[in-house]
Amino acid sequence: MTRIIKKISEWRKVRNETENKSIGFVPTMGALHRGHESLIEKSVSDNEITVVSIFVNPTQFNDPDDLQNYPRAFEKDYEILNSHNVDYLFFPDYGEIYNDNYRYKLSESEFSKILCGKFRPGHFDGVLTVVMKLFNIIKPHKAYFGEKDYQQLKLIEGMCKAFFMDIEIIQCPIVRDVDGLALSSRNKLLSEEERKFALNFPRLLKSDKSKEEIFRELENLGFKVDYIEEMDGRRLGAVYVGNVRLIDNVKI
Ligand SMILES: Nc1ncnc2c1ncn2[C@@H]1O[C@H](COP(=O)(O)OP(=O)(O)OP(=O)(O)O)[C@@H](O)[C@H]1O
Ligand SMILES: CC(C)(CO)[C@@H](O)C(=O)[O-]
Ligand code: BAL
Fold first, then answer.
1. Is the per-residue pLDDT at 19 higher than 90?
2. CATH among 3.90.1300.10, 3.30.300.20, 3.30.70.330, 3.40.50.620 for 3-172
3. Is 2 a pocket residue for ligand 3 (Cβ < 6 Å)?
4. Chain centroid to CA 106: how far?
5. What CATH number does the domain located at 190-245 have?
6. Which sites are catalytic (predicted)?
């Protein structure tokens, strides 16, 4: 059975007893899907101990409605963790993580300001701060992140390098539904019709059109488009379907 740990003090005791065992860590905000499961499976196969965290981190939400509507599914999540033989679920509350009430934060001043960072002010400060805190608490050897959140993944790699953090970041490929939509917790917020409409996003992202053409075509279809950009041999984008913001990227 996956053991639920809510308190840092309780985890510290467990961590002290792990001796030389390898520890893999999968940070999440819950509402788990097969994308998360792919990270968990990799961690379970690579490490002797796997820790998953579920913490809907308020400091990375620039939009209070987005935070309030963020899907939460604790019971189903717990079943999924058990079915993968995850050893520990770290499930802290706000006060446990933000004992400073977010007076201290970690920022990156360049890459975090473009792409998603341009449209979600403060988002990556919140992400980097919470990931640093979680790393300092869990003290994993390896941590697993998905390529769907490509900018997040690169910023976390940069943070580890900048602060000489001895944690290996494992980059995991995007898991898609059979129809091509990248799995995302926020997909649960789409109506059936919106979900069908959302399929235009991955379809156009992977087309051989230019980023400008893709931007225009998505707008003409009725998407609100934050950006379509290319970097590192990838085309990345963020769009709104109704109130739901989706991100995705493909290799080009
Ligand atoms: N489809 C996916 N394939 C691979 N990894 C994924 C996928 N979706 C999410 N992840 C990874 O799971 C980790 C936790 O992500 P998170 O809990 O925010 O889920 P999410 O589905 O990305 O939710 P959101 O709706 O916030 O985008 C991140 O490292 C993220 O990149
Ligand atoms: C890395 C993370 C768990 C930090 O809250 C979150 O941004 C996510 O789920 O991708
Ligand atoms: N997976 C990224 C979390 C967020 O959108 O806040």
1. no
2. 3.40.50.620
3. no
4. 17
5. 3.30.1300.10
6. 36 (proton donor)
ipTM for the predicted complex comes to 0.97
Q: Are 218 and 202 in contact, with CB atoms under 8 Å apart?
A: no
Which stretch of DSSP H or E encloses residue 23? strand 23-28
Predicted confidence at residue 170, as pLDDT, reads 98
CB of 235 within 6 A of ligand 1: the answer is no
Q: Ligand 2, atom 10: nearest CA belongs to which residue?
A: 28
Is 84 an annotated catalytic residue?
no
Which residue from 171, 148, 130 is spatially nearest to 238, judged by alpha carbons? 148
Q: Candidates 149, 189, 243: which one to mutate for ligand 3, based on the most atoms within 8 Å of Cβ?
A: 149
Ligand 1: residue of 149, 189, 247 to mutate (most ligand atoms within 8 A of CB) is 149
Domain extents for the chain?
Answer: 3-172, 190-245
**Whole-prediction pTM value?**
0.97
- pLDDT one-digit tens code per residue, 50-63: 999 999 999 999 99
Q: Which two tokens stand for residue 118?
A: 């341009």
